Amino acid sequence: MNEYLLGLQGRRVLFAYAIVLILFIILPALVLVPISISADDSFVIIPEAFSLRWYEQLVGDPRWRNALVLSLQVAAVASVMATIAGVLGAIGISRASPKVAKVLRLIFIAPIIVPLMVIGVGFYMLYARMRLVGSFFPLCLAHAVLVLPFVMLPVSARLYSIDKRLEWAAASLGAGPYRTIFRVQLPLLAPSIFAGFVFAFIFSFDEVVVAQFLSGPRLETLPRRMWEGIQMGGLEKTITAVTTAQLLLAVVAMLIISIWQRRSATKAVSSK
Amino acid sequence: MTTATTSIAGTAPINTRGVGVRFEQLSKRYGDFYAVDSLDLNVAPGEFLSILGPSGSGKTTVLMLIAGFVAPTSGRLLLGDQDISQIPPYKRNIGVVFQNYALFPHLDVRRNVGFPLEVRGVPKDEIAKRVNWALERVHMEKFADRRISQLSGGQQQRIALARAIVFEPRALLMDEPLAALDRNLRQDMQYEIRSLQRSLGQTVIYVTHDQEEALNLSDRVAVMNLGRLQQVDTPKNLYLRPANPFVAGFFGEANLLSGKTQGGVFTTDAGIRLPVTETREGPAVLCVRPEMIVFGDERKSDFPSLTGTVLETRYRGSILHIELDTPLGKINAVQHINTTNDAPAEGTTLEFGWDPNLGHVMMGQV
Ligand SMILES: Nc1ncnc2c1ncn2[C@@H]1O[C@H](COP(=O)(O)OP(=O)(O)OP(=O)(O)O)[C@@H](O)[C@H]1O
Ligand SMILES: [Mg+2]
Fold first, then answer.
1. Considering CB atoms only, which of A163, A180, A184 is closest to B100?
2. Which of A212, A218, B126, B364 lies at 20 to 30 Å from A116 by C-alpha?
3. Which residues from B are below 8 Å from A169, CB to CB?
4. Does B147 touch chain A (CB under 8 A)?
């Protein structure tokens, strides 16, 4: 269609625009990759000598290492909690009456819409009163709330595309509600649950606003460490190692998700 | 296992495994709209009953009520002599075959068919045996290790059928199971469903809106319209003895004349008197099927004697349709064509009548 609508000139402009846009999206992430593996201290984009010293520093320097481990722990606990609550919530909502479902869905999605600053302040006031600021599990819990929508959204979407009659079929064949969830719904939801988990993990892993409010003096998460590093002594190159590692993690996760979803999509389509 | 592949409609089941289903004043209301309205119906053990009706008449809702996927607003539903209205679907032991098959895409054929046995905790070797038995019954034993996505529509339908019979359900429900298949395959499957049902003695309640299918398969057909049961009867009686004009018009063509009947004489609204066998009296509708109408010398002395002008003639295969303009209004007639007769020319005047024993009076209908 575009060929006829735009003409040659138009297509060239559109192509150029697309290239610029794509570069603009991925460049900020990509420039850090070569910097992170360059040997010298300065921020040159095309390095002369390569080294993994910034990665070594990330693991070797106790302050960096502690921050990294803490962030991994928070992200793991938060995303597991969010995944369990989100999957059960999505299934529950799919079984509720349409009116109730509408309200519930809005509540579950709210953490994505409400500004992080607001959520941060809210949790801070709550936790301050309960003397929970600076404790590990309360921070995980707050992050779990934040990342809940990342699980809810893909799982709900997938639930709606699964035929209701599969649930009915399972019931008619003698499977009670729990067995239907474990034997029919969860296997079909697995790719979207994994996707939700990955999004949740990545978001929690580099979340800085809420962490800033709730971690107190003792808990220093990786994004907070990075933030402080930047504020204190300008850009430290360890940061580029962190971001590169994150990038790699995200790319691998996305690859797994897309391969898995393609495989299970061909399965699900054939049932209709 | 006794085979009964040669028996089809009309022969007695070899053994009866199914139980009866009884509806007592069963209703399902959405808002103030009755999807099913005071249904009274008794399905015998081992019977093949079809539910037939136009779109939106409540057929699927009836099946969903039996399966337990929707709860009745009022009334009772009995399976055998047990009231199951309050029992959840997974405890009802009723097999359901859905129009879109509803096979589990993440399980292969064997695991799909074995599913109902697995959830019942049947031992593994017993499951394997029963699954093989069910797959043989639907001629799919070679496909046991296929993925569902590797099966055609007809094959998926067979697997859905195998899965629904493997746990020996007390009744088997099917909602337009063949609607998605092409005509030839549909006829093969009709035959197989019927012979399977016969040999298992399975009670089957089968929803369709294909009349021919309902008539081919069923011991009895329940006709529904607007959530109400119109008539339950054998295919033959539905045709010859329809309970009301809706049923008469639903099965084949019918000439419907309204008027009143008294002492063996039916008087149309226009005042024409016609002989009938009905002895009751009151307002009624007389149903005369097109093929009952005979012309000229073929009429006997006790037949009504009427004349009509030919409006139009049409050949449909070996049958000639004749449309007549008569004092009764438009009358449709059909004749079997043999080599000697020709279609009467348009405008010809013909004398016609019918056997009063065949004309059917529906009382209380206007
Ligand atoms: N959940 C529901 N809420 C409101 N109305 C409903 C609901 N389910 C069904 N109905 C209505 O009940 C009536 C009967 O529906 P049903 O599905 O039983 O019809 P059907 O005879 O199976 O039709 P078809 O031949 O088109 O499948 C329809 O008018 C439908 O709109
Ligand atoms: Mg229907």
1. A163
2. A218
3. 96, 98, 102-104
4. yes
Q: What is the pLDDT of residues A37-90, one digit of tens each?
A: 887 777 777 777 788 888 888 888 888 888 889 999 999 999 999 999 999 999
DSSP letters along B271-326, please?
--EEE-S--S-EEEEEEE-GGG-EEGGG--TTS--EEEEEEEEEEETTEEEEEEEE
Supply the pTM of this predicted model. Answer: 0.79
Q: Which of B198, B192, B145, B143 is nearest to B13 (CA)?
A: B198
Partner B contacted by A176 (CB < 8 A):
yes
Q: What is the DSSP-derived secondary structure letter of residue B108? A: B
> Which regions of chain A carry the CATH code 1.10.3720.10?
63-271
Q: Is the domain defined by A63-271 classed in CATH 1.10.530.10?
A: no
How large a percentage of chain A has pLDDT more than 70? 93
Q: Give the whole-angstrom CA distance, residue A153 versus residue A144.
A: 15
CA-proximal residue: ligand 1, atom 8 (nearest): B61
Strand partners, B78: B22, B83
**How many residues does this entry show for chain B?**
366
In the predicted structure, residue A247 carries a pLDDT above the cut 70 = yes
Nearest Cα of chain A lies from the Cα of B107 at a distance, in angstroms, of 9
What DSSP string runs through A32-99? Answer: HHHHHTBSSSS--SS-SSB--HHHHHHHHSHHHHHHHHHHHHHHHHHHHHHHHHHHHHHHHHHHS-HH
Three-class HEC string of A142-186: HHHHHHHHHHHHHHHHHHHHCCHHHHHHHHHCCCCHHHHHHHHHH
Q: How far is A264 from chain B (nearest CA, A)?
A: 8
Note whether A170 contacts B: Cβ–Cβ < 8 A.
yes
A174 contacts B120? CB cut-off 8 A: yes
Q: Summarize chain A as % helix, strand, coil (round to 5).
A: 80, 0, 20
Judge contact between B361 and B266, C-beta under 8 A: yes
Quick one: CA torsion of B241, B247, B252, B255, rounded to 10 degrees? 80
